[in-house]
Amino acid sequence: MRNLLTNGIIFSSFLLSLLTGGSVRAGDVFSQQAEDLFQSGIRNYREGDYVRARLDFQDILARLPLNQRSSAAQLMLGKTLYKLGEYEKAIQAAEDLLDRYPQSRYAPYATYLIGSCHYREGRYDEALLAYNRVLDMEADEGLMRRAEEVIDALVSLKLSEAEIEELRRKGLLRGYTEPDHEARQVMEGLLRGSVGLIAPLSGDDRTFGEELRDGVLLALSGGLSLVIEDSGSDPIGAIKAAQRLSEDDRILAIIGPVFSPSTIAAAAVADCRGVPLIAPTANEDGIASIGDHIFQMNITPRVQGELIAEYAIKELELETFASLTPLDSRGEGMAEGFASAVRQLGGELLIQEWYQPGATDFGEQLKRIREAGLSLLPPDSLSSVIAYQETTETLAPVSTIDGVLVAGAPDDIALIAPQLVFYMIRTQLLGGSGWNSQDVIRMGGKYVEGTIFVSDYFERSDFPAFRNFVDQFRIRFNKDPTKVAAYGYDAAYLVADAYKNGATTREKLLEALVEINGYKGASGEISFSHRANRSAYLLKIHRGRIIEIGSISKGR
User: Fold this and answer.
1) Number of other residues whose CB lies within 10 A of the CB of residue 300
2) What is the number of H-type helices and E-type strands within the chain?
3) d(Cα 206, Cα 128) in Å, to the nearest integer?
4) Parallel, antiparallel, or unpaired: how do β-strands 535-542 and 348-355 relate?
5) Which domains does the chain have, with CATH numbers?
6) What is the rounded distance in angstroms from the CA atom of residue 250 to the CA atom of residue 180?
7) Which neighbouring-strand residues pair with 365?
């Protein structure tokens, strides 16, 4: 069996040849503008920003006269289109190079690219013809070995015995022999060793897509290759991207998209095709229930409600509760999770109150919560409270409600907290990720002090994995990472780690992901229960700061 070389080694040497020596021909004109655009394109390509890379290479070819980077830009345009999944256009770009620059040293790479595009399209006979043409050319030794290895892998894993015999008859197998079991496993790695990413790299949500991409790229450095599909800001784009990735046998898993509507659309396709999909940031309830191949990393509002209720009862030993949450999907999910957990754990939920998002006056809801608290008083104590209020014309303190769940946006929370004090409801405030904002502290002041809440992310975490991620990200991208980047990193790391430990097929990877429990990553702790993460940061507002007091997980 020939020694196997990785794509990364071959492509690194190829890029070096591009950067250290152009293909200047007689009559070519040196253009600094072309050089600058080419360097920009290579940089964008390396960073996975294939949309920008394509524009750079297209600019060289369309706007500038023949120059020292013309043939190299032609090839890189083809490779960029290949990364974007536009295989027919990539083939056309490669064929244009062969037509215009038949003596170019990049001709073998263009031929290899044509073979790779045909493979992605499932046209294996044409792929084999292209790879065999590479062997007839004066190509780099590494590229020729790669072509030989892919030929072996294609024949062994994709063709029937009858097809193999026909290729032998035509003289296209170049000494191919049936591989042993160990060699076949290595070959499978050649054709199965990529991660698909679906992200909005164009449109209004482009920034989020770029953040997700950067996190994934960092986790896969030196490991699995990445195939990126731009979904735009459209669930239909996500469906098409998922279809393309699912049809590629080398794609072990899909990561993305960013938002729930597109994630739901892509997840339905991936599950039908049997491809594990990790939803890194989407937090709508029920995404993991789409199918057995779908994993949800970002904790849902319902899980947040369950976790804070569990902590309040088991650790704080609180018994009586009320909730005040917005009438939207997030508020309803959190309230339902909180109520379910309180009852299951033996607590008492006295009352659930709701408000319209954007409201500023919560008096009616708080009056009813106060009355629910008063209802727990024995008759003599209640009489004393009524007498006190009639005499002083002020409200008597109510301390019979041990904990009140308050959920919503930071602006809502900052308005509710002081009104709770105004209505003399003395209680432990509890919450979810809406509290994890400096705006809550700035606007809420002393009224939010002591609140305990759970959150999916904490940018000042002491997790070693988080600190290491931040340091690496800053070095690689020269900027601070975001929450989306952290989730992308963890999703890709889980896949890469499983692959390194033998999960080299979709089926094995699925088995490995199901077992994830207590992984401490850049975004926090991850434990999949029924394929949905049920771990969160446990945070508290203490002396005007948000501090980490631990993490909490719901049982598998």
Assistant:
1) 26
2) 22, 16
3) 37
4) unpaired
5) 7-190 (1.25.40.10), 192-298+460-531 (3.40.50.2300), 302-455 (3.40.50.2300)
6) 21
7) none
| CA–CA distances in Å: residue 72 to residues 63, 211, 327, 509 | 15, 29, 57, 38
Q: What are the φ and ψ backbone dihedral angles of 323, each rounded to 5 degrees?
A: -140, 150
| Two structure tokens written together for 203 | 């449109």
- What's the CA gap between 69 and 53, in Å, rounded? 14
Q: Quick one: 13 exposed, middle or buried, by C-beta within 10 A (0-12, 13-18, 19+)?
A: middle
Q: Per-residue pLDDT for the chain (556 aa), expressed as one digit of tens each? A: 333 333 433 444 455 455 545 444 444 688 999 999 999 999 988 877 778 899 999 999 999 989 989 999 999 999 998 877 788 899 999 999 999 988 888 999 999 999 988 877 778 778 888 988 898 888 788 788 888 878 877 776 666 777 766 766 766 665 455 555 554 554 455 455 789 999 999 889 999 999 999 999 889 865 677 888 999 888 999 999 999 999 888 899 999 999 999 999 999 999 999 999 999 999 898 899 999 999 999 999 999 999 999 999 999 999 999 999 999 989 999 999 999 999 999 999 999 999 999 899 999 999 999 999 998 888 878 778 787 777 777 788 899 999 999 999 999 999 999 999 999 999 999 999 999 999 999 999 999 999 999 998 888 777 788 888 999 899 888 899 999 999 999 999 999 999 888 888 899 999 999 999 988 889 888 999 889 998 899 999 999 999 998 888 775 4
CB 302 within 8 A of CB 336: yes
Q: What are phi and psi of 452, to 5 degrees?
A: -115, 135
Burial 433-446 (b: 16+ CB within 10 A, else e): bbbbbeebbebbee
